[in-house]
Design a protein that fits this description.
The protein is mainly alpha-helical and 145 residues long. It contains seven helices and two strands. Helix 1 packs across helix 2 and helix 2 packs across helix 3.
Length: 145
């Protein structure tokens, strides 16, 4: 599959997230979630449909294809990993972590994300979070020991 632009990844992630409870998403909900116009959603869905990632009949629900489900899960997983790292490891506030995760998920390589995930697991696994607490202190600009 051809690589998606960050914008198309955002649309696909939104459809993935919104379709989880019922198996489909609506353009109006995607529009509201991403704070974009409905015509923008329609254009993105046409592009994603042409790439075999979504199925949508005119004025109908948006459904992910198997390839779209796989890609959407990967994008959402990257986002979740980064947001968790930013909040649990770096101690960022939830809102800031969300914003930064949304930007970073498009920029980092798979290898970098894999290593970041492993680092996160390593830091969280230390006894009583001693290493994590030390890392947070260091990250916040205090003296590292």
């Amino acid at each position: 599959m051809k690589e998606l632009s960050p914008s198309l990844e955002d649309y696909l992630e939104a459809v993935y997230t919104l379709s989880r409870p019922e198996g489909f998403a609506r353009a109006s909900r995607v529009s509201a979630l991403l704070k974009v116009s409905k015509p923008s959603v329609s254009a993105a869905m046409r592009t994603l449909g042409a790439r075999g990632l979504v199925d949508q009949q005119r004025y109908a629900c948006i459904r992910l294809t198997p390839a779209g489900l796989k890609a959407g899960a990967e994008i959402a997983g990257r986002h979740s990993l980064l947001k968790d790292f930013f909040t649990a490891i770096l101690g960022l506030e939830e809102k800031k972590a969300e914003q930064d995760a949304c930007r970073a998920e498009h920029a980092l390589s798979r290898e970098a994300l894999l290593r970041l995930g492993r680092l996160s697991l390593f830091l969280k696994a230390r006894p009583r979070g001693a290493l994590l607490a030390a890392a947070r202190t260091c990250v916040r600009g205090r003296t590292c020991k």
